[in-house]
C-alpha cells in the first residue's frame, strides 16, 4: 500500500512576515579605501610645489647620502638625500606628477583612439573591420620594449614621446573590446528597429552603440591605469623615459640601485610610492569592473523582488514539501 495523504491534510505553515530577504552583495564600501588613496596621490601630485620641502633638482654634495630623519648642515631631510645631495621626499612628490600625468594621458589617448577604431570596425564590418583588426593584431604582436626603443630612437626621449609609445602599444585592447561589443549590440532589437526605420548611422552609433561600449571602455581604462604607471617607470628605469634632472620614480630606482647595500632609502621609498599607487589603482579597477561590467553585475532590485515573498532556503523547502503532501493522489487506473 502506498503512503498517500487525503485532501484534508493540514496546509503548509505560512511564511513569517518578518523574514529578511537576502540581498545581492554590491561592492560599494570595498572601493572607498583605494579611491581615497588614488585621490590622495593626485592631490599630492597637484600641490607638490607647495608641500615639497626643497627644490627636487637642487644638488648639495656636502649632504649627499644623508640617512632619513637626519639633519645635515642645518637642513632636515625626512627621507634622506641621494648621491647628489637632492632631497628624496621632494623628488618623490615631483615624480608622482610625472607618473600620474603619463598614465592618465596614455589612457585617454589610447582609449579614445581604440574605441573609435573598434566602433568603426564593428559598425561597417567588411573590409574596414578586417583591416582595422589585422592592424590591431600586428600592434599586439610587437614587443613593448622593442617598440619603445624604435620610438625613442626616431623621436628622442621625452614626456610626450613616452605617451605616444605607450598609446601605440595599448590601443588594440580597447579596439577588440569595442569591436566585440558593437557586433553584439547591432544585432539587438532596438538597433535593428532604428535601421529599419531609416535612422542615420551616426545617430544610431551615438545613441545606441556608444552607451553600450563606454562602460566596458571605462572598466578597461581603470585597469590599464596602474599598468601604465609601471610601464612609465620601466621606461625611465632603462633610460628611455623622462630624462634627468626631471624627477621620476623609475629614474630614482635606476640611480639608487648601485647604493642598495649602503643607502637603502634610495630605492625603498620610491619603490613603496610606486607600489602603493599601482595597488590602489588595481583595487579601484576591480571595483569599477564589478560595478560597470554587465557580465558580472547582479540586478539587485529584481533579486529583492524575487526573494522578498519567500523565506530562506530551508523554509521554502518545507513549504514545497507541505504543498506536495497536501495534494490528493489519484487511485490507480483512474
**Quick one: overall form?**
elongated
Number of strands: 2
* Structure classification: mainly alpha
Mean pLDDT: 79
- Give helix and strand order, one letter per element, not per position: HHEEHHHHHHHHHH
Short summary of the structure?
The chain contains twelve helices and two strands; from the N terminus they run H-H-E-E-H-H-H-H-H-H-H-H-H-H. It is an all-alpha fold. Helix 1 crosses helix 10 and helix 3 packs antiparallel against helix 4.
What's the arrangement of secondary structure elements?
Elements: H1 32-46, H2 48-51, E1 70-72, E2 75-77, H3 88-124, H4 126-141, H5 144-155, H6 159-185, H7 189-196, H8 201-237, H9 249-256, H10 265-292, H11 300-307, H12 313-326
Write up this protein.
With 334 residues, this protein is an all-alpha fold. It has 12 helices and 2 strands, in the order ααββαααααααααα. The chain has helices at 32-46, 48-51, 88-124, 126-141, 144-155, 159-185, 189-196, 201-237, 249-256, 265-292, 300-307, 313-326, and strands spanning 70-72, 75-77. Strands 1-2 form a two-stranded antiparallel sheet.
